[in-house]
Structure formats: structure tokens, C-alpha cells
């Protein structure tokens, strides 16, 4: 399957231009030096979680697989590189035949992660792996940041559904990926039609103030909406006066009115008043949807309010303060040649300024306590201890260039809920703190 | 010109799915109610600048024009809407013939803006205008946020060039738009090949730690890079020991070495040491490029350091703390019918929670003081005072559905530099403060 077959809005003939120029010039230099084919291992990890966060959420893995499959240098791309003189003919010839033929392992999408977790491991020749750096990081950094915010919000919302409404606050295609990541993180639906089209996420909609203002009276607007959408629709009740609007809404739609939306004011107070008014009017099943710059803290503060659903925009698509996940893509081991028998040598940048990396091809496992609750993220480069063998986190995603782990989006969504439920209870505290479980390095290979 | 003709990476057959579902259901309700054709005016504005910022930067206008031209409901899109039951057949028929046929006026791209500035004004029938809300806001909110950060950074950098390197920290297509907005805001180049391909922005690249680690010795890596790229290349000198790396770099490339890059450590200190060492080695023309989580404050703090260029990633593509510009798209006036002679009635949501909007179709002008420096953003709904007639800010972008103001990207880039230079000097102070000029409403139409 090629992403180009999937149509809008990711209908790009190739992902190969989502690449920083230095990846191509490093390739060219390595080709000339005879080092390009050295067997190499790159890993994606983050040195730290955003300040105070207890866990991270892996998201975007499915999009990474699409991007890798679709990473081709067609004539248009090659012509651009030639015209700009970015690399020479020999390198262009090599790129024309490019297909990733290596292996990729990774934390499955929806899994939680911690500082140092080897979220993705890309193995192959240096040449074929180095080219994927930018596109892999773009996807994982963006999508994981959104999923982490979504997870905190869905945890704060409990059983009440969350609607993703942030498309207008971010780049039009980020919005589509954000809706996808939000769904993985526990959101129920999105207002973004492109996300519905592309990923099959349930879409929903209410009404805007403009619709009320278009009409001569609020009553006319409500009548028009109910005539068109039926009594089950959601009427926006805060264009003029909320109390009057709620009365009008129930008069127009009857007590079968589906829901009302409140988009401004002190939501806690207004929700209580509106609930009481709806009940008094006999609209006991009419739901209340609140929107208006909600984040996980605002959602939590409304836990005791008579609210049935939350619409979240800005704070979701901007990662609730942390719009990127600060993951890096680092060479951690390489051999002296392409020979599969040549030993892998761990490599790592020496620190100058705190940017320590741990060399070596890694495994990871989550150790549980006697009650089955996670107690440590264990990362190592040697053999996996027997007691952790069935707790390993990395799964094979690509084998010899072929994607082997595609899955429908409901799978990572359920996986995330299960992974979060397996963490200590303090994982879902919203207050700032340390990662909820420590990262332990087995054999202490730091810098080896 | 259609964006689809422009190829990668915005090759999507239509932008019509970058739409929130409620726009379509409002359309359907208005069609049935007979109000869909009412002549309407929508405006894009922001109620406030990000906390402490002195001015905003309009960016994305050119992309908005592409999106509006490309906003079509083809069979694939219509089939999706039908299958999901989002709107009925009558509405689908209307959408099949959709072409925006109205007028769009706006602040030209690169111009600065302030709270309340009518950055874009979209005029036509309610039906044709309401559909554009999400895609217009997505583009302007994202691109303007990035351009504002870029402008602060370019102001802090003075004459030293800035390189955009943030692709890996944001969604792969946001990255392309971010490179474009950064260029408008004063950046000189980008590392993102897709941005070079799509918008003709100059691209540059250096080398990564992985390239050094791939080789048996740092010297081998430097030799390979110089053999491939020539002596004018930029060598990365902080993989192991900076002093030794600089010595090796000059030994390998000679004093003609183009530049060295430093990506970690105390950049101020390291830059001074490296400059001294390069000079002692006779490499007096070798430049120093610094990277490593720079923002406008870090750039300003390096003003006295011997640095020749800055590479900026994360903080640029995340808007340096403000990843979205919080612009809204509001109905501000509408007539009782489609008749061009029917008077426009100003409309606005009544406040409940501070979300005040000012009704009426607006003009804007920047009043200058006796020295030609901006002193107020004047916004009004009545006739334009004679003394402000030639200081008006809105220009026509679309006329009767046709784009009339396309321009190459260097034009908004120069326009921004000129607009910023026309503000009071305190505009470019990095410290927090109020908008550098006040917004004045003429005729005091608030809420009228």
C-alpha cells in the first residue's frame, strides 16, 4: 500500500523531500569514502520528558511506515537536486534506485515511553538509514506530543467523550495528524473532515455563532438548524443571553433536543445553571457540551459539573504547552563493513553540554512489580535477562524493507488505554512530577 | 494556477476537506432556511497578541490564496460526505458546483498587525464564505505564529544570517510552511529540501554527529566530507573534543575551510575559543555557525560573540512559546438578501466571558507621527478620514473569485523588513511589553 493510493490529504508522490539537506551530502561523502554501506543502527529516543510530565505516548508509528514505503526519489525530486547542485550524478543515480531494505523495530503505537526508551530502531546500511532521519523525527515528534496531551485530557475527562476541534489552530495537515494522534490518546471524535476521510475517525459538528448572527432572531437560527438536522442536533446557546437561548432552544426543538453547547463564560457555573434550567424544562436527556480553550486542568476542574462532553482545540493541537516531543535520531552502533558477520561497534557522541547518548543496539522491557504494575523501564545492550524476556517492548515493524505491522487505528487506541492503566496510579496525576517509573540501564553501558 | 500543478509536497487534489464538519451542516441549514445567499462579511482578527509580544506578523496569505482557488468538492470528497451522511443530496449538489466567487481583502503578507487588526476580510454569500473558515484560520494561525518568532530572531541576529533547521521538530508539512514563514520573517535559508523545492527558498546543510561516528576516526570523516564537498564545507566539531576537532579540521581542509559548526556546550565561551584557535591556525576567514536549541534570547546573548550564522530549529517551528496566533474568523456584517443594494447590518456576539467582537465591515490604517513612525493602528467602519486615506492597510487579494495579488516570496520578506522598520524602536525589544502601538477604533462602533 502506498500513501498516494489513499488520496487526500496526504496525496504526495513521495516523502523523500521531507529531508534535511545534510542527509544527502553526508550520503554523498560516505559513498565516495566507501563507508556508506557500513551496517548501522540508528535509534530514536528522547533524553527527557517535557517538564513535569509523568510519561510519554508513542504516536505516529503508522505514519512513519507510510512515509518509509513512500520514500522514493522520482524524476521531479532528482531534477530539483540536480538543478540546485545539492549532490552529484553518482549520488543521484544511487538515489534513483533508493528503497529502504533494512529492518525497523519500535515501541508499538500507543505504548507509553520514558527518558531513554528506544522508541524506534532503524537498521540497515548507513546510507539507507541516514536519509530517514528528518521524516521519522517530524512524524514522531509531532504526533507523540499531541498524543501525550490527548492522553492527559482523556484521563482527566474519565468516561466523558472528548471531541478534537483544533484544526483551525494549527497547520491544515498537522491538524489531520493531530486528530489521528488525539484518537490514539483517547479522544472519541474530531470536527476535521480531512481526518475523517483519511483515517476513518468519527466526525462531529455543532454550530458557530456566525449561524445565529446570520439570522434575524436566534429563534430563526435554531428553527433552521432543527429543521435541517433534526431534534438530536446540538444548539449553540451563548451568542446573546444563555438563559433565554436555552428556553428558546427547548421551545423550538422540544425536550428531545440533543445537546446545547456553551463556548464562553465561567463554564462550571454556567453548566450548573443550564442543567438546572434544562431539567426544569423537562429536557432531562439534553446533553451539555462545553468548549472554550479547554486543557487538561480545565477538564479536571469540570469533573463535578454536569457536563456530558468536552470539545478541545488549541491546547490539544499545541500539545498543551509542549508542541514537540524532543526525540532525536542517533547512530548508536555500526560495523566496519556491510558484512552481517562484522561485529557492531557501539558509538556515541562524547558529552559537551549535557547531550549524552548511550551507545549500542538496545532492547527495552518494562519490569512489573508483584501486583503487575510497571516499576521500571529497563534498557540494555547485552542479552535480555530471562525474567524480562516476555516483557520486551520493541516489535518488528519493517522486515527487509517490507512493512509487517500495519494495524487499524483502534488497535493503538486500545493499546494506549491498556499501557496507561498498567502504570502506577500517580501516572495520571496532572501535577508536575518525575517520570512515573525510572529508566534503568542494564550492564551500565553509558558511553560505551 | 492550481496548487496541484506545483507538485510536492502540497499536491492535494482539493483543500475542501480542511473543513470543520459544522461548516457544512450550517450551510445545509441555511440553504433550507433561505438565508444561505445573504450577502455577508467575515473578518479574521486576533483579540490579543501572545503575552508580552509587541507586534504580530501576517504570514500565509499566499497559501490562503492557493487554498481558496483549490477549494473544490470533487467526486471523492462528495462520496465521503454522502457515505457518512454528513449532509443531504441537495447540499451535495450545491457543493459540487462550489467555486468561491466573492472578494477577499487583507493585510498584505509580511505586514505587521495588532489586536483587532482586520487581517483578512472575506465577502460574498454566507454560504460561500462560511466554508472557508477552517482552512483560512489553519494557514494564518500557523504561519503567522512562525513568522512572528522568526521576526524576533532576525531582529536579534542583526546582519548575521539565520538558517531554519526545525523540520524534524514539527509535522513534515508544517515544516515546509514554517520554512516559508521564517523566510518572510527574515531567515536566509532552510535545511528542508521540500521547502526549497516548493517555494524556492535557498537550502543549506552541514553534517551530523552520525557522520563522524560512522568513521573510524574524526579525521577520516572530515577528509571524506572535504573530498566530497570541497574546502568550503562546514565541519561539525563537537563530536569528541572541540579543540582537537578544530585542529584536525584545519589540517584536513587547510585555512580555506568554509566553516565549523558548534552544536553543544556554552556557545558564547566555545565560540570565542574556537575563533581564537582558528585565527591562530591562519583560518581567519573560516566562519563559525552555532546551533543547539537557540531562541531569540540566546541569539541576542551571542551578539558579542564571534559567531557568523545561527541555525535555529525547535524554537522557530514552535513559534518560540506561541505555536498559534489565536486568530478567529467572525461574521461581522450581513444583509437581508443577496441584493448588492441591501444594506449591511453589523453583527457581533454579545460578550459573556470576555470574547468581545466588534461588528461591521472594517477598514484599517496605520497613523504615523511627524517623523514618519507608526503611532496607532486605526480601525473603523465608517468613511476613512482623508488624512488616513493613503495609509490604508487592506489590499484586494481576490476579486470576484479570481486571485489578483499573487507575488513572489521575496516581496513579503522585504515588506516585513520595511514594516518592522516603520514601528517605534521599542518594537524589537525582546522583553515583554504591550503592543508597540495602540489600536484605536474610530466612531467607537464596539458592539454596534
Automatic annotation (TrEMBL), chains A, B:
Pathway: Cofactor biosynthesis; NAD(+) biosynthesis; nicotinate D-ribonucleotide from nicotinate: step 1/1. Belongs to the NAPRTase family. Keywords: Glycosyltransferase, Ligase, Phosphoprotein, Pyridine nucleotide biosynthesis, Transferase. Its EC number is 6.3.4.21. InterPro entries: Aldolase_TIM, NAPRTase_N, Nic_PRibTrfase-Fam, Nic_PRibTrfase_pncB, Nicotinate_pribotase-like_C. Catalyzes the first step in the biosynthesis of NAD from nicotinic acid, the ATP-dependent synthesis of beta-nicotinate D-ribonucleotide from nicotinate and 5-phospho-D-ribose 1-phosphate. It comes from the Bacteria. It is an enzyme of class 6 (ligase). Transiently phosphorylated on a His residue during the reaction cycle. Phosphorylation strongly increases the affinity for substrates and increases the rate of nicotinate D-ribonucleotide production. Dephosphorylation regenerates the low-affinity form of the enzyme, leading to product release. This is Nicotinate phosphoribosyltransferase. Residues 17-141 form the Nicotinate phosphoribosyltransferase N-terminal domain.
Amino acid at each position: 500500500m502506498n500513501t498516494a493510493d489513499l488520496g487526500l490529504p496526504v496525496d504526495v508522490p513521495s516523502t523523500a523531500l521531507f529531508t534535511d539537506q545534510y542527509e544527502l551530502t553526508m550520503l554523498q561523502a560516505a559513498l565516495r569514502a566507501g563507508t556508506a554501506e557500513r551496517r548501522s543502527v540508528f535509534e530514536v529516543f528522547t533524553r527527557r520528558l517535557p517538564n513535569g510530565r509523568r510519561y510519554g505516548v508513542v504516536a505516529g508509528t503508522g505514519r512513519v511506515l507510510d512515509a518509509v514505503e513512500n520514500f522514493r526519489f522520482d524524476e521531479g525530486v532528482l531534477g530539483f537536486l540536480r538543478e540546485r547542485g545539492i549532490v552529484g550524478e553518482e549520488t543521484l543515480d544511487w538515489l534513483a534506485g533508493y528503497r529502504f531494505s533494512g529492518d525497523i523495530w519500535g515501541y508499538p503505537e500507543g505504548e507509553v515511553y520514558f527518558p531513554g526508551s528506544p522508541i524506534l530502531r532503524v537498521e540497515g546500511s548507513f546510507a539507507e538509514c541516514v536519509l530517514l532521519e528528518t521524516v521519522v523525527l517530524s512524524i514522531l515528534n509531532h504526533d507523540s506530543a499531541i498524543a501525550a496531551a490527548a492522553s492527559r485530557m482523556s484521563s482527566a475527562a474519565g468516561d466523558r467523550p472528548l471531541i478534537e476541534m483544533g484544526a483551525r489552530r494549527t497547520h491544515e495537515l498537522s491538524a489531520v495528524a493531530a486528530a489521528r494522534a488525539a484518537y490514539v490518546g483517547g479522544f472519541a471524535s474530531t470536527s476535521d473532515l480531512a481526518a475523517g476521510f483519511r483515517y476513518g475517525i468519527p466526525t462531529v459538528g455543532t454550530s458557530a455563532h456566525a449561524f445565529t448572527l446570520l439570522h434575524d432572531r436566534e429563534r430563526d437560527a435554531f428553527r433552521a438548524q432543527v429543521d435541517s438536522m433534526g431534534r438530536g442536533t446540538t444548539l449553540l446557546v451563548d451568542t446573546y443571553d444563555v438563559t433565554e437561548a436555552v428556553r428558546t432552544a427547548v421551545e423550538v426543538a422540544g425536550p428531545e433536543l440533543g445537546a446545547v453547547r456553551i463556548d464562553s463564560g465561567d463554564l462550571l457555573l454556567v453548566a450548573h445553571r443550564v442543567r438546572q434550567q434544562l431539567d426544569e424544562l423537562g429536557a432531562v436527556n439534553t446533553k451539555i457540551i462545553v468548549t472554550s480553550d479547554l486543557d487538561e486542568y480545565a477538564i479536571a476542574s469540570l469533573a463535578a459539573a454536569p457536563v456530558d462532553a468536552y470539545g478541545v482545540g488549541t491546547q490539544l493541537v499545541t500539545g498543551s504547552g509542549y508542541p514537540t516531543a524532543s526525540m532525536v535520531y542517533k547512530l548508536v552502533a555500526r560495523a566496519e563493513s556491510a558484512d552481517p558477520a562484522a561485529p557492531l561497534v557501539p558509538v556515541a557522541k562524547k558529552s559537551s553540554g549535557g547531550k549524552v547518548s548511550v551507545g549500542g543496539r538496545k532492547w527495552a522491557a518494562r519490569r512489573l512489580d508483584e501486583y503487575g504494575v510497571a516499576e521500571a523501564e529497563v534498557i540494555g545492550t547485552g542479552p535480555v535477562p530471562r525474567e524480562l524476556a516476555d516483557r520486551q517492548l520493541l516489535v518488528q515493524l519493517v522486515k527487509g524493507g517490507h512493512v509487517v505491522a500495519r494495524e487499524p487505528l483502534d488497535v493503538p487506541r486500545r493499546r494506549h488505554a491498556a499501557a496507561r492503566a498498567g502504570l502506577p496510579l500517580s501516572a495520571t496525576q496532572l501535577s508536575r512530577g518525575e517520570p512515573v517509573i525510572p529508566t534503568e540501564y542494564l550492564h551500565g553501558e553509558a558511553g560505551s
